Amino acid sequence: MRLLWSKSNNPIDWLIGLMTGQDCAHFSFSFEDIHGQEMVFETNLLGGHPAFYSTWISASGRQIIHSQVVPATPDEVAALWLSWVQNYDGKGYDFLGAFYTGLMVLRLRVFGIPKPLRNAWSQRNKFYCDEIYQLVSGRFGFPSITSVSNGMDTPHDVWGKLQSGEASPL
Question: What is the CATH number of domain 2-164?
Answer without folding.
Answer: 3.90.1720.10
